[in-house]
Amino acid sequence: MKPTRLILIPSLGSEPAPYLFIADGMVRERGLLELDAVERPEPMRTVAVAPGADVILRWLDLPAGGPVQQRAAALWMLKDSLAAPADRLAVALGPVPAAGRPRLVAVVGLSLLQAWTDYLEALGVRADAIVPDALTVPEPDEDGRLNAVAFGPSTALRGRGFAASVQPDLVELVAGARRVEPIADAGAVERALIDAALSPLVNLLSSQDRARGTARRGWALASALAGLLAVSPLVLVGAAAARDDIDARKAAEQARAGIASVAPDLAARPDPVEALRQRVRAAPPPGGVVGAAAALFAAVEGVEGAELDLLIVDPAAGMKASVTHADYQDMQAIGRAMRAHGLEITETGTLDDRGRIVSDITIGSAR
Q1: Cα angle for residues 90, 219, 98 (degrees, 5° grid)
Q2: What DSSP string describes 67-125?
Q3: For 176, left (φ over 0), alpha (ψ -120 to 50), or beta?
Q4: What does 217-245 look like in DSSP terms, one character per residue?
């Protein structure tokens, strides 16, 4: 088996990336890849683990068909849970399941996927696969249990037919009646990462080109393909053979009931957990918008050559900004200044623009 490099993409695009060099199923080297390193890493098969908080992971009963048709059907099934139009999304499929079983589907924004790719290229590597962190956590043997691993500011949860990365304060709510088993042993986490590197459950890059081409026709294509498949005899046979997952439905109902107790207006949403996550992300920062804006202006002014290009306050999406700066390390300085005011910035996108760096950020409460 070829040697594999596993890279953990950090939550901030200005930070270095931890990596493992894996050969013969074992870790042969550990280290950090620096953005400003003079020596570039040697070419080899590379798998990157990305922050999974903004990746939607679902197990869906997809109709029979080819990958393009199934991706379109998945988009149509999830349309009420997706905030972005179809031409801005990439859809990746997991392994083909046994007959009558749901298939793993991962959906991520194209801009975020491109930002991860750009970050890896800035490290001097090209990824063969990108997998969300929640899918590196081992699946538990019991239906009523969730395994949990901390990745940066998020907690990755994995259950039977379930995976998500959430803020630590939402773990109990998302878990519902399921027992959460934290995996704190570094050796166990490393073994899980090795398994994920050697055989990723899903590759977010697998549909990148397709998403830039075919999916540009948007929801109309997803609707049309889903409609064509709906009248296929194969789909009717598959639907008749499919069985409801009773335990999964019970867990979903328990999670919905928990959300109803703290946010009744969200309980009726198609995906109340995701709706609650979006509400938490969009919550006003401490000190209000005016205080957060003042802190951001001061933080940007404190970094030589940095400029605030855009500041948006949206009740539905929260507080966002774009900052142009000269060096990847600048965002660390801005982040430290914001944390001094009880605020946290999260980079959602980074690109090079004619020698300058443009970072898209969201602003929220520091944890």
Answers
A1: 60
A2: HHHHHHHHHHHTGGG-SS-GGGEEEEE-PPPPTTS-EEEEEEEHHHHHHHHHHHHHHT-
A3: left
A4: GHHHHHHHHHHHHHT-HHHHHHHHH----
Can you tell me whether residue 322 is helix, strand or coil? Answer: strand
Angle at 185 between CA 180 and CA 189, to 5 degrees: 85
pTM of the model: 0.58
How far apart, in Å, are the Cα atoms of 87 and each of 22, 84, 136?
36, 8, 28
Sign of CA dihedral 311, 312, 313, 317: negative
* Residue 126 token pair: 């090209």
Please name the amino acid found at residue 19: Y
Using CA atoms, how far residue 220 sits from 62, 66, 81, 107, in Å, is: 18, 18, 17, 18
So what's the pLDDT on residue 327?
87
Q: At residue 167, what is the residue type?
A: Q
DSSP single-letter state for residue 34:
-
The DSSP secondary-structure symbol of 341 reads T
CB 103 within 8 A of CB 82: no
For residue 214, the 8-state DSSP code is: G
Strands of 134-245, DSSP E: 145-151, 154-159, 162-166, 179-182
- Ranges in the chain, pLDDT < 50: 208-221, 223-247, 282
Which residues are bridge partners to 19 per DSSP?
7, 31
CB count in 10 Å sphere of residue 337: 19
> In angstroms, rounded to a whole number, what is the distance separating the alpha carbons of residues 273 and 254?
11
* Whole-number pLDDT of residue 135: 95
Instruction: Tell me how many degrees the CA angle 247-239-95 measures, rounded to the nearest 5.
Output: 70
Query: Using CA atoms, how far apart are residues 25 and 193, in angstroms rounded to an integer?
Result: 11
Q: What is the pLDDT at residue 21?
A: 92
Rg (CA), the chain: 21
Element (H, E) at 290: helix 288-301
**Cα within 13 Å of Cα(188), Cβ side:** 12
Nearest Cα neighbor of 184 from 158, 151, 135, 159 is 151
CA distance 158 to 365: 26
